[in-house]
Amino acid sequence: MIYDIRHVTTYSYGSAVSYARCSLRLKPVNGDGQQLISHAVEIKPRPINRASRLDFFGTDTESVLIETPHRLLRIDSRSRVAVNREARSRAADSPAWEDVREAAFASKSLGGGSPIGYVFASPLAPLEQPVTDYAAESFSRGEGIFRGAVDLMHRIRTGFKYDPKATEIHTPLKEVFEKRHGVCQDFAHVMIAGLRGLGLPAAYVSGYLRTYPPAGQPRLQGADATHAWVAVWCGEPIGWVGFDPTNDILVENDHIVLAQGRDFSDVSPVDGVIVGSRRQKLGVAVDVVPVE
Amino acid sequence: MADSAVHGSKARPRDRKVAQWTRDYVRLPGIPDEFITPDGAPREVWSRFFDYFASLSPPEITRRFGAADRHLREAGVSYRAPGETSERAWPLSHVPLLIDEVEWQQIAAGIVQRVTLLEEVLTDLYGDGRLIADGAVPAAAIAGSAEYLRAVCGIKPPGGRYLNLYAADIGRGPDGRWWVLGDRTQAPSGMGYALENRLVLSRAFADLYKSMNAERVAPFFEAFRDHLRASADRDEPRIGVLTPGRFSETYFEHATLARYLGYLLVEGDDLAVSGDRVHIRTVAGLKRLDVLLRRVDSNSLDPLELDASSQLGVPGLIDVLRKGGVVVANMPGSGVIESRALLGFLPNLARRLLGEDLKMPHIATWWCGQKSAREEVLDRLDDFAIEGAYGAAVPGFPGPGPVLAADLSASERDRLRNAISNRGIDYVGQELVSLSTTPVWDDGKLAPRPFVLRVFAAATADGWTVMPGGFCRIAERLDSRAVSMGQGARAADVWVVSEKAVTASTLLPTVDTVRIKRITGWVPSRAADNLFWLGRYLERAEGTLRLVRALSVPQRDPGKGPQHQSLERIQRLLVTWGATALGARANPSKIAAEALQNEEEFGSALSLVRAAQRNAASLRERLSPDAWQVITQMAERLAQPVEDDDGVVSTAELTLQELASFAGLAQENMNRAAGWRFLKMGRRIERAINSTRFARQFAYDEATGEDLDILLTLVDCQITYRSRYLVGALLPPVRDLVVLDPYNPRSVAFQAQELNDHIASLPTLRAGGLIERPQRLAVALQSTLITAEAATLDAKSLFALEQQLLELADAIGQRYFPHGASAMRPEKLMGLA
């Protein structure tokens, strides 16, 4: 499947902003069942400096410096991506979760893709005993990690209410868990924290969903904004597998990956600091259209 | 021999004293002691010390201890316990910890070897990663640390090192050897306190200090300073101590270090990234900063790449490091090596990287991320102290560690067991050890107390150097575990005692290495801001005190002084100034007392002096101890309850005298660099505003002679007026003297002229020849006052004058201070985009 993606971010400010330093993580991953065909980001006002580098997690990160006073910042990202992932059965076999845990603990790499980076608490995914206990119900003794993760994803989908008004970026995990509601980001953090509590490697993935479903299928949640889901390390040779707890589906050809990190704070698509305005309004528009 | 002297019949009185102290000194069973060896004899260095000590009479000992305490109090040595808002005095144990030079050399060799090893490990962890790939260090032992900064991976530390400063907490174990209890690599604290303790004790016991041949610590600081200077990539680098600010528990120490080493004390707000460099905001614009000695934790250093919620750092700092534009000591991320999870691997790493065995052992530690260690800990759970593998907390258990399984209930024990089984990577088991004790002096007796010694090492061009001394923390409880300043512990100086006389040294460099400099024309914007407001608050306090005095004198001496109506004007002014919550018609005595010392009212003299004190606290590295002391005294006096009108008058008068002495100190002792000008400008602008307000209130168009009399008292011009005019107080001459007379140092015109002089001497930003706004307003103000005539001065023009002054004060703030429009605090972009 080939997609044309348009992702427009706008910040409007109450007064002129004289300085902005941003980090952009807007370039879709090339590889891992995805092929990046083209990509361009247009920024207004024009930055005086733009520089790209790969961050620790291998994400293409662009540093942008704007010193032109402005009241409106517009970041327009266009990408064309081909996606071709193999489909998996929800009941597929996999190593027992306890063995995956030992294998992760014994990891001999600190790199961005190493499972050991994803078993500890991270800034937005603290480990909470109730969340760990909740996740533990999906992992009976000797259960395959894949089936356990499918079950946990399903329980989050059915047990939590999707409600874009209920939470914001800084709503603590504890509150999301207690009130059982939130958006894709919250569900991803809950699933991640639960898995890590058990010692299992779980990563946060940011990306897109196709906006319009194939005929006869329902529209997926999170399709008109950036989306977030979970990657679980299922031991060798399976490696990382994507789980979308918001929609209770495995990540296949409807998902386009932007970045993977420990939680949202590692992969935030647009991040930065500004000087000059206290009031700001954010707008995000995402379109993901199949080309063929 | 001490023993024969004790028992000999001809024992001197001082020998008998030492013998008595020794007999009364009851060691803790089974625990080694610094003073007394296991076979019951005092160690030689301590005998020498107490022999001298015994020559002092008890009152003399009390006097010297008192002198030491007074010095600490006066210097404002303090710390803030976690969770407290006010600073506490520094509790000093007056008996230093003594360590024989020979033994010290072993300690120092162990420390140098250890920090050399840690530097190598850090270089590998953030660089090639061979130790991880080979399995010499488990990846999990690193990945779990919040101090493992992924953003820093692959950056070569500018200046060439991760560690520039290192500290280790050590203690003497049951076997008599010194043990490392923990490594401090993030931003070790205590060095400044050690320095302060040394200054105090060596002064109080100068003769003893000299006769004991204690090693000097100054050369250590000198070597460290040379090294930091050399680490920058230009000749005369600008170096700052980065502090979280005055609410940090060790803020006093940050200021001490900055002052002693001659560095700028800066907060994140003071710094800005521009180009590929870090700059400091000054009244003369951005100035490049080359080296940051940081006392802010790594994760708070850069909201853009690290903890996004931090307000303490500098956005873009990590990117500057990436480009090699600034040296940060220690390199962000260095704290990862403090993890207890790593301890068990260090002996092998020492053999592999240095080809040596560790010279100093550390507490035996089992990291439960490895199966065999985990099983051993679970098997003998009661034999271990369970600690967090990476930080102070033990995950799943409240408060800082350790958790002792033996102290837990059965269900809590199960929980601990489960936690270790599931996520062993988060826990270590450590051997339970008791540390040695050292004597403290309590009520004329010596008593043993457990202690922890913090030892410091600094990088120099010739390798690591260890401070001969350190920071000793002494526990009050006899449990020899868990010593922290917050838990009511005392601190002690540490003397490394040598056989030979030591050479004296201070921080004076040799003559040929110093370039003569006279004045630095700029000052950091935040310091300028604090100085300006220090001046304003003190001047406002003076105005309030003068009003209080004018109101109270007639209450104390009924029949004397002005009548009811004029007094009501004073009361009205105190009400509008926010000095009292009582109405203008309330009892004058009550109003005066409130305006003097009701701290609920922001305009009371006490509140104003407290506000000045807060500004001064942020300027500790710039103010002389004398100046700080005067402010503290004023606040203390104003806070003491006063009985009656006489008490109000005398408190007001004494405080006015102290204000004058502070002004004198500033005038006579402060360097005339830009900072001084801001202090003066603060006083000038506030005095001009106050004099204008007094004039509006008491020299109004229908003012009585009594009103004018009060005005002359308030602005301290009675004598001048009487010598100049033979008539009683009349409106035009009084207005002229108070507002327009440029020769009267209390007049508004005089303040305007001074303000103009100061502003003209400050650096300008616009080279285009345009006059800057503060100067434009100040010149306009002065010409108004020069050209005005007393006869045409009226209520309306006085009001306009006041507005002009307020506008000028505002313009000064906008132009020179960090909260001006030109340099707002960066706001974080928000939202899930």
Automatic annotation (TrEMBL), chain A:
Keywords: Hydrolase, Protease. Residues 176-247 form the Transglutaminase-like domain. GO terms for molecular function: peptidase activity. The keyword Glycoprotein does not apply. One of its GO terms (biological process) is proteolysis. PANTHER family: BLR2979 PROTEIN, BLR5614 PROTEIN-RELATED. This is Transglutaminase-like putative cysteine protease. It comes from Rhodopseudomonas rhenobacensis.
Automatic annotation (TrEMBL), chain B:
Residues 96-475 form the Circularly permuted ATP-grasp type domain. InterPro entries: ATP-dep_Glu-Cys_Ligase-2, CP_ATPgrasp_2, DUF403. Signal peptide: none annotated. Pfam families: Alpha-E, CP_ATPgrasp_2. Residues 524-817 form the DUF403 domain. This is Putative circularly permuted ATP-grasp superfamily protein/putative alpha-E superfamily protein.
